[in-house]
Specification:
single chain, 6-stranded mixed β-sheet, alpha/beta, about 15% strand, about 30% helix, elongated
């Protein structure tokens, strides 16, 4: 059982949140977390790499010179992959790198990722994050008061346009609603800043069978 301090935007502690990492995830499987992260990274690949084969490059297909009697090594046409300007022997072609793991496995991986962050004391809770108008300075001051200076994911209970616009230009800071986080987005940054409402929503979710 862990008691996570709840801070306000000035960095003062205003309460505590009791959470048991073993309730979130009874065990942490490094293999499952690895598989989930690899899947998410693979799904981010564009798959648009393309190079030309010998049939696609420009040039004559006529044999450059006769097979014997010239004293040179035998050679085919200019499009050969061993010649400059020729086609690639193992040419790249566009492909879809995306694939999908079972939904239940991904849900468990997300819970394991958060539990591991709590165990490593890389999660901070804040009572609320509000912004009447988009203003990056307010979020920068809040992070400074909370002593958060590493790569950071801010998790909020729901999408707020003003808060999002206030945080999007800060280097190494990302912001997501709790419904859109996954094992990769949790593990990628060094630290997490989670609002109390977002943590409540996460604790209420269950793994679908």
């Amino acid at each position: 059982m862990a008691n996570l301090p709840i801070y306000d935007k000035t960095g003062a502690q205003v309460g505590a949140y009791e959470v048991d990492p073993e309730v979130i995830a009874p065990k942490i499987s490094k293999q499952l977390l690895h598989d989930a992260v690899v899947m998410y990274q693979s799904n981010l690949r564009q798959g648009s790499a393309k190079s030309k084969t010998r049939s696609e490059v420009h040039g004559s297909k006529k044999k450059m010179y006769r097979q014997k009697g010239t004293g040179n090594a035998r050679a085919g046409h200019k499009r050969s992959g061993v010649r400059r300007g020729g086609g690639h022997i193992f040419a790249k072609s566009p492909r879809d790198w995306s694939y999908r793991m079972p939904r239940k496995a991904l849900q468990v991986a997300t819970r394991m990722a958060l539990a591991s962050k709590i165990n490593n004391e890389n999660v901070k809770l804040i009572d609320q994050i509000e912004a009447e108008v988009p203003k990056t300075k307010q979020i920068v001051e809040m992070l400074k008061n909370l002593e958060l200076n590493n790569t950071l994911l801010i998790v909020v209970d729901e999408y707020d346009l003003n808060v999002y616009k206030s945080a999007r230009n800060i280097a190494k800071v990302n912001i997501l609603p709790v419904a859109e986080i996954n094992a990769y987005t949790i593990l990628k940054p060094k630290q997490l800043l989670v609002t109390k409402k977002a943590m409540d929503k996460f604790m209420e979710t269950k793994v679908n069978s």
